[in-house]
Design brief:
By secondary structure, this protein is an all-alpha fold. It has a domain at 77-195. It contains 8 helices and no strands. Helix 3 (58-73) runs antiparallel to helix 4 and helix 4 packs parallel to helix 8 (174-195).
Length: 198
């Protein structure tokens, strides 16, 4: 799933089409009349708004939270795990990484993204050991970034269980995975609200 395309082209196009053609659609398909306004509202929330409205921005995280809730409601758990994994990395980059934010389409995007993912992973994997080289990095991180990294690690592990169709030596209970996913979704929604300032 490519979040930039999903959030900035598909949702934008559908939102714009609904805005300009909603009455035509209602007239052509009367059974859809009552549902179209709600659909237009839902689609509108998927589109990041504002000058800095990219998938890798506070507005992008909010849009991802709306999409994440929709994936939960439709039982698309594998996609939801992938979206949460990418979105927690995005949130970590917003909170913990100084400088120019990542932007899809930038030639250096993949390299920058890997560095940020490595930093996020290092918060968890190296934290118990706290070697001198890592202590300085950890000490500079806001507590929110550490919390995001912890949640990312949990989502990553569970996502791997789902992605490998439970064909691993240590199987996770499916109900526990579902409960963990719902909890991660709620944490992500709260994080999106916090990044939005409310």
């Amino acid at each position: 799933m490519r979040i930039p395309n999903l959030l900035t082209s598909s949702a934008t196009g559908l939102r714009d089409t609904l805005a300009t053609r909603i009455e035509d659609i209602k007239n052509a398909y009367p059974p859809l009349r009552d549902d179209l306004d709600g659909l237009a509202e839902q689609i509108g929330r998927l589109v990041p708004r504002g000058v800095e409205a990219t998938p890798i921005s506070e507005a992008g995280v909010q849009a991802a939270a709306v999409l994440a809730r929709r994936l939960w409601e439709t039982g698309r758990f594998a996609e939801l795990y992938n979206l949460l994994r990418e979105s927690f990395i995005t949130a970590f980059s917003i909170v913990a990484v100084a400088g120019t934010p990542l932007q899809p389409g930038n030639p250096a995007f993949n390299k920058q993204r890997r560095k940020i993912e490595y930093k996020c992973n290092s918060v968890i994997s190296l934290q118990p050991y706290k070697p001198d080289a890592v202590v300085c990095f950890l000490d500079t991180l806001p507590m929110l970034a550490r919390d995001i990294a912890k949640r990312y690690s949990e989502v990553q592990q569970n996502r791997n269980d789902v992605a490998h169709c439970s064909m691993r030596s240590e199987l996770q209970d499916q109900e526990k995975l579902r409960i963990a996913l719902e909890e991660s979704l709620e944490v992500f929604e709260a994080l999106a609200r916090e990044l939005a300032g409310g």
